[in-house]
Amino acid sequence: MKHYVGIDLHCNNNLLVIIDEADRIAFRQRLANDLQEVLSVLECFRESIMGIAVESTFNWYWLVDGLMEAGYELHLVNTAAARQYEGLKHQDDESDARWLAHLLRLGLLPTGYIYPRESRPLRDLLRKRAHLVRQQTANILSIENLYARNLGWRIRSKDVWQLSAEKIGQDFQEEHLTLAASSSLAVLNTLRCQIRTLERVILAQVWNHPSFQMLETISGVGKILAMTIYLETGRIGRFKKPGDYLSYCRCVGSNKMSNQKKKGEANRKNGNKYLAWAFIEAATFALRWDLSARRFYQRKTSKRGSVVAKKALAHKLCRASYYVMRDQVRFSSEQLFA
Q: Of 81, 165, 199, 296, which has the highest C-beta tally within 10 A?
């Protein structure tokens, strides 16, 4: 008798359902998020379990890694594509877990990529850098707003970095405003130090990889964007076609068409948000330094507008990145914009 497992994972517990070949429930129970407890339950069915489907939630690392180490075949479920019939009158955790096991049994389970465990910490460290950069930007804007609101001065971002506690005290001459601006400045300096530390550590790990070196040859792609594209992409061979990679990077349209008319839009947020950001940034920088990219952008702008034009340029650079990483070749602007 073959068995199939579906796990509906939450932040503090999980509901585990095991079904047999006839879709009958052989076991169901809500368990604490403890790996040993989950393994002890599965041990009774170990020889007959054909696979385990786990929801791709924010906290799947510990469960998937632990079950894979124990020798089980894991399937990380794309939850956006594994929805049940919307007309159901009753739906709970048990029905969700059973649905995952049912799709697994039928071979219809939509799965996601399990990023290699040994490479995941470095990728997550890069994401932490992005988080710190957002906080840095928030503190810069906070200081700019203090000057604009209280003094009527417009201070540029690059001038914020030149500020000191003494200069702030001279400008505001009010204890509470001085403390507010000085606090933001202190946090800003700490964030800059930490961001630079993270960049040095990440760069030391990726600089000698051929894919990273080839990505740096693309117009508009520097070290930070090359690190982002390289680490967020992972193994480029998992994308069978350039179109699959473009879709993952959110560089394709999501319109629903019928009889040559637009009937709506699909989920435009399906894919990797970090790669989507990276290629838009690359397009922005390519406009400054690459004449061929600028001409392409101007032609598109005259027909479709600036927003569509920049997205089209990001699409071009994304497609080029796919071939650069797959074939390990240097970027050629002449070929891309011929």
A: 296
Domain ranges of the chain: 3-106, 120-206, 211-336
CATH superfamily of the domain spanning 3-106:
ATPase, nucleotide binding domain (3.30.420.40)
| Three-state secondary-structure class, residue 39 | helix
- For 325, residues 6+ apart whose C-beta sits below 8 A from its C-beta are 211, 214, 215, 230, 233, 236
| pLDDT > 80? residue 208 | yes
Could you tell me the maximum CA-CA distance found in the chain, to the nearest angstrom?
80
pTM of the model: 0.90
Specify the pairing of strand 261-265 against strand 255-258: antiparallel
Q: Assess contact for 100 and 55: CB atoms under 8 A.
A: yes
CA distance 21 to 99: 14
| Three-class HEC string of 181-247 | HHHHHHHHHHHHHHHHHHHHHHHHHHCCCHHHHHHCCCCCCCHHHHHHHHHHHCCHHHCCCHHHHHH
- 262-316 pLDDT tens trace: 666 666 678 899 999 999 999 999 999 999 999 999 999 999 999 999 999 999 9
Residue 196's CB: how many other CB atoms inside 10 A?
11
Reported for 13-18, long-range contacts at CB under 8 A and 24+ positions apart, including other chains, are: 14/38, 14/63, 15/93, 15/94, 15/96, 15/97, 16/41, 16/42, 16/97, 17/94, 17/97, 17/98, 17/100, 17/101, 18/45, 18/49, 18/101
